[in-house]
Design goal:
The protein contains five helices and four strands; from the N terminus they run αβααββαβα. The chain is an alpha+beta fold. The chain has one domain: Alpha-Beta Plaits (2-Layer Sandwich), CATH 3.30.70.920. Strands 2-3-1-4 form a four-stranded antiparallel β-sheet. Strand 2 and strand 3 form a beta hairpin. Helix 3 packs antiparallel against helix 4. It starts with a helix and ends with a helix.
Length: 136
């Protein structure tokens, strides 16, 4: 078993046992997503819920995705992965940003449109987490 699979299985087991795993969004933890593990910038996981305004304009979502990429890039933030989910959250995004200030500005700018409410988590690649654990 590769160390990615070991990590993947271990995280899933912990989340499942703690009732923190929403299986509809499980694949966001898949190590094969478009995340370059050599990247040096911090990762952020953004959990989003559509507002009533977005629901009413849902047909404009394709244009909104394209526009959001431009807005985030203007703040130096790269959208590594977007996954639309069924469950507690409507969308889960994995972002790469130079710092908390950049991701905050990008999210506030995008949020000012009134289309999405977000919760942001700091993310770590498996390699970074292994490095952190070794330092304990």
């Amino acid at each position: 078993m590769s160390r990615y699979r070991e990590f993947d299985t271990g995280v899933r087991s912990i989340l499942y046992n703690q009732n923190l795993l929403d299986t509809s969004a499980w694949y966001i933890f898949n190590p094969h997503l478009d995340i370059n593990v050599g990247d040096k910038m911090p990762l952020y996981v953004v959990l989003g819920n559509f507002t009533q305004k977005r629901i009413e304009t849902i047909k404009n979502l394709p244009e909104g995705i394209t526009e959001s990429r431009k807005v985030f890039e203007s703040f130096g933030v790269k959208i590594k992965q977007l996954v639309f989910t069924m469950g507690r959250y409507d969308v889960v995004g994995i972002f790469e940003a130079p710092n908390e200030e950049a991701i905050s500005k990008a999210l506030l700018s995008w949020g000012s449109r009134g289309l999405l409410r977000t919760e942001t988590l700091t993310g770590f690649t498996p390699e970074k987490m292994i490095e952190l654990v070794k330092g304990i």
